[in-house]
Amino acid sequence: MEGMGYYVGILLGLILVLRWSLKSVNAWIYETKLEKKKRESLPPGDLGWPFIGNMWSFLRAFKSGDPDSFISAFVHRYGSNGIYKSMMFGSPSIIVTVPEVVRKVLLDDDTYRHGWPNSTIEIAGRKSFIGISYEEHKRLRRLTKTPINGHEALSIYIPYIETNVVSALEKWSNMGRIEFLTELRRLTFKIIMYIFLSSEIEHILEALEKECTILNYGLRAMAINIPGFAYCEALKARGRLATILDRIINERRKKRETPLGITRKDMLDLLLECEDDNGRRLDNEEIIDTLIAYLNAGHESSGHITMWATIFLQSHPEVFKTAKEEQERIVMNMPPGQTGLTLNEYRQMEYLSKVIDETLRVVSFSFMTFREAKKDVEFKGFVLTFKLDP
């Protein structure tokens, strides 16, 4: 028995040494390339396992139903300074949770730029918002936000939105128990697709939604391009989605060449018309990447925020009561003969707007965002960049 204990002890020791060695590989690869002063000024943390980095614990936290546990583990091990080194999505990274630093990282465009992982860019598109330069990003957002932002745009889509929301509520009431978020995402996807591509694609809505859902699952997955893994399946879904959109774009181009070919302007029409200062218009790849970015971001965020607003209203009866009374009052004051909502009624929804704003404040839909430092940045004695070039 004593001999068995000796060998067990040796085995455990070897396992610990092997574990320490593997956990040191990323640090050896990346940190040894830094100058000594910069290396010693990195914030606390670890770069995780070889290749995987900290992604395993990151994804496990999400699947556990307690996503905050990922950051909590860093706080428990390295203190509550809110600045930690890590290895995320295949790149050495600095995780920042301190409000004042987060604010600077997000708003200081002279020091930081978009820095999304290459794996995410491959799925979203090299010519999407996250794959293009900062100036191109601003220009494209300015050109494409018109049909979906503001009161003028809303006034165009209110009848379609109201009709589909009422229809969905009636359908859900007869279904008994439902998966609320799934149904909300399906509803918001249909509405956003109408805003982007009109009603001509309703016959393939289900197929488009399926591909977008698969694509979304792979956006924050480990970049393992092997069949069966979420990232690989997302790349395939993106290919299928791009093929469908390419066909729609080509058909719309032909339709626009004929007299009276344009009956209304949606997002696709705007993208086909917009041009840069030299008169160059967007090609199909640029349009596809832009549409995919909007489709994924739009229906996912809208569905989740609507779900949380509903949950909060149910959890706070007094708020629900006030919001309901406001809606009833607006309906009672509608002009005789008016059967649906207009922009005038929407503007009267002051209390409900505050409920939505508060939901947006409380709920963080995106667990993290990515920025890349253009140069070395220091905060409280820490270097906040793994920038390796001189």
Automatic annotation (TrEMBL):
InterPro entries: Cyt_P450, Cyt_P450_sf. Pfam families: p450. Keywords: Iron, Metal-binding. It comes from the Eukaryota. GO terms for biological process: brassinosteroid biosynthetic process; brassinosteroid homeostasis; sterol metabolic process. GO terms for molecular function: ent-kaurenoic acid monooxygenase activity; heme binding; iron ion binding. This is Uncharacterized protein. It comes from Ambrosia artemisiifolia (Common ragweed).
